[in-house]
Amino acid sequence: MKNKRQLFAFTLIELLVVMAIIALLLSILMPALGRARREAMLVKDSARIRSIHSGWLTWATGHQGRYPTPGYVNRLAIDTGQEVRGRGAEDRLANTSDNVHSLSVMENLYNADRLLSENEPSGNVFAMEHYDYTARNPSEDTYWDEELNVDLDDGGDGCHVSYSSIPLIGSRKEKEWASTGSSEFAILSNRGTRFGQYPDHSVTYDIHGGGRTWVGNVCWQDNHMTYEETFQPNMSVYRTSEGHVSDNLFNIDCVSGVCNFWGGDTWLVLVSELSDSGGDMFPYQLMPELEWDDPE
Q1: CA-to-CA distance for 237 and 12, rounded, in angstroms?
Q2: What is the DSSP letter of 78?
Q3: CB-based burial of residue 138 (10 Å sphere; 0-12 exposed, 13-18 middle, 19+ buried)?
Q4: What is the percentage of the chain residues whose pLDDT exceeds 90?
Q5: Which helix (H) or strand (E) holds 163?
Q6: Strand 237-240 to 225-228 pairing
Q7: Of 54, 76, 201, 219, which sits with the fewest C-beta atoms within 10 Å of its C-beta?
Q8: Virtual CA dihedral for 42, 44, 50, 55, nearest 10 degrees?
Q9: Which domain holds residue 118?
Q10: How many structural domains compose the chain?
Q11: How many Å apart are CA 290 and CA 269, to the nearest integer?
C-alpha cells in the first residue's frame, strides 16, 4: 500500500485577506497605543517632577523651612580682618536655577538625571552625565559642581534641566520658597513658552502637546500634581490686599498698577544669572537672565 500525503497551502487571495485584516487591526490599535504611550510618559514625568519637589521638602525640614537656597550655603564672607566663611549674609546673586539644582544634587536630594524629562524635545537640553560630587570644597569656597547649566541658547553651554521653577527674586521668594507656602501656588512644572504666550509653534509644544499646543504637569506647594492644558489653571490665582487675578504660570502678573519682576505671583522659568537691579523698593529686587526655548 502506498502512503498518500495531502499538501496544504494558502492561496494568494487568502494571504491578501490576512494581510488586509492585520493592516486594519494595526490602523485601529496604533492610535490607541500612541495615546497609551503619551499617557504613560505624562505619568512618569509627573512622578519625576514631584520627586524633585519632595527633595526640596526634605531639605526644608532641616533648614528653617527653606527650600535649597545657594546664597545661604555659599554666603558672603564677613570681613573682620579675616574672612569667616558660612557666617555672612545671603549671597542673593547665587540663587540661580542651575545653582539650586546643583546644590540639591550635591546634597543627594535627587540625581542629576532626574532633571531630564524622557520626553525632552530640545537639542539644547540633555542629561548631565558626570556630576562631580568631589567638587565640594569649603576651603576653596566651592559647594557644588558649577558645570550644571541652564543655558537654552543655540550654541550655548547647554541646559541640564527640563523643568521650570520660580525665580528666587521678589516677594515670591520670601513667601513661597519654603515648605510653608500656599497649596494654591505652583512651584515646578514642564517648561512653558516665553512669558506665557501662545505662538503658532513652540519647542515646548513638543514636550507633551504633540507639537500643537502646550500641555504639561504642574507641581503645587502641597506636593500634589495636576495635568494642565492652559497657562492659567483654575487653582492659579494671585491674591493681594488689592484684589485678585487669574495667574499665568509663565508670566508676571499684578492686580493693579504696573507689573514687575518682583511681585508674589507664580512665575515658572529658568534663570541662568542674577544681577543687582539698583533698586530697593521690593524684597529681592534682582534682575534675572531668563532662559526660554524660543527666540524673541
Answers
A1: 66
A2: E
A3: exposed
A4: 73
A5: strand 163-165
A6: unpaired
A7: 201
A8: -150
A9: 40-291
A10: 1
A11: 7
Q: How far apart are CA 119 and CA 163, in angstroms?
A: 12
User: Residue 219: what are its φ and ψ, rounded to 5°?
Assistant: -105, 130
- Cβ contacts of 62 within 8 Å, gap of 6 or more: none
Question: Is the separation of the CB atoms in 264 and 238 below 8 Å?
Answer: yes
Q: Is residue 14 part of a domain?
A: no
Cα 164 vs. chain centroid, distance in angstroms?
3
What does the block give as the cell for 196? 506665557
Q: Grid coordinates standing for 132?
A: 562631580
Tell me how far apart the 2 most distant CA atoms of the chain are, in Å.
116
- Classify residue 60: in a domain, yes or no: yes
* Dist CA 207 CA 189 (whole Å): 12
Q: Which residue has the cell 487675578?
A: 245
User: How far lies 43's CA from each of 50, 117, 207, 249, in Å?
Assistant: 11, 11, 13, 20
List the one residue out of 135, 146, 172 whose CA is nearest residue 249.
Answer: 172
What gap in Å lies between CA 117 and CA 105, rounded to an integer? 16
> Looking at the chain, how many residues does it have?
296
> Which stretches of the chain drop beneath a pLDDT of 50?
1
> Cell digits for 116?
531630564
- Residue 19 is assigned to a structural domain of this protein: no
CA distance 44 to 151: 25
Is 20 inside a domain boundary? no
Q: Which one-letter amino acid corresponds to residue 212?
A: R
Q: At what angle do helices 12-61 and 97-106 cross, to 10 degrees?
A: 90
Tell me which residue has cell 552625565. 129
| pLDDT tens, position by position, 118-151 | 999 999 999 999 999 999 998 888 999 999 999 9
What pLDDT score does 78 carry?
Answer: 74
Q: Residue 262 is placed in which grid cell?
A: 518682583
